[in-house]
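User: Second chain of the day. Same drill as before.
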Amino acid sequence: MSLNQTPRSNRVHIAIFGRRNAGKSSLINAITNQEIAVVSPVMGTTTDPVYKAMELLPIGPVVIIDTAGLDDEGVLGELRKNKTLEVLNKTDLALLVIDATTGVTSFDKEILVQLREKKIPIVGVLNKIDEAQLSKEDITALERTLGLKLVSVSSTTNEGIHKLKESMIKVLPDDGDDLRLVGDIISPGDFVVLVVPIDKGAPKGRLILPQQQTIRDILDNDAIAITAKETELKETLLSLGKKPSLVITDSQAFHSVAADVPEDIPLTSFSIIFARSKGDLDEMLKGVAKIKDLKENDTVLVVEGCTHHRQADDIGRVKIPRWLKQLTGKDLNYQYASGTSFPADLKDYSLVIHCGGCMLNHREMQHRISQVISQQVPIVNYGLLIAHVQGILERAISPLIAKTQQ
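Assistant: Same format as last time:
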């Protein structure tokens, strides 16, 4: 699989944590055998987290995240530390780098506690062993202090780097089978029709990520993907030699597509598929049921996992407020978050409406949902909300619910 074929959201996120000058950036260069990170003896060279998508054999496609030192100082240092801690919410595997010349510090212990609280797989790394004269007893004492086995390495001489990679492979979570799109609800040879509107918001010359990933999942499961615009859907269905096993549409075209697709053909949307794959479909269905409880002047948070140019009829800022007004008859207040921004305090919101999350990895999407649930705020995603507004929610979720209940 080449670099261009795997989006960041589908890559294993490997984050490097440790004090300033523990050799985190040098370690990245040693692991990847490339000059990826800027290395300097000046403390605090790495400021904001640096993301690098690449192939790391034999693990495969990964995102390496270089973070600022946990012992950063001053006002800016505190901001950089907060950015480092935000990385925890998307980390699939953490490397905790201990400087062999200074030993274990309170900063190392603090981040270790947080990694364990979030149940993130950890590999302890004792770096700069070429500069420190440590006996086996010394290393055992450090491990006892941390309660963590350490892999001894030198990012300068590459000593221990192969063993470190082996340790990383052993602890990596194997959750690929849980991140389902449609592979478990179709069979080899099935026809799956994808409805892809091409409007002014569509990117020139390419499909958006959920469409690409769904097509690939269909092909990986030996089924046949047939793609059409909503204006050609009727003709497409009439032209097929057999009935499709599933129709998947962009949520914004739900109304016209539902009218054109016979009731005996299962229908859902890309966003609803992602609600199950990366999110929590059951929790979001509970959120749908709470929409009727919205009151006049309640505040709704609309969240998108990416940043994009706003269109005149933008779904988050124009269409969703219009649909909710039509559905509830209430005047509601709206606030917005996009990209990596997600509020920690949600108590002032009566509802969170999230996009499908195609640009977020599974762990980060799960973190956001758990954060919402812990503060007892209902959450829905775009596709479920739109299906509810259009009066076709039961039909849109039935292909996924039926499979889940089998």
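Confidence is low (pLDDT under 50) at residues 1-5, 42-47.

User: Great, on to the next one.
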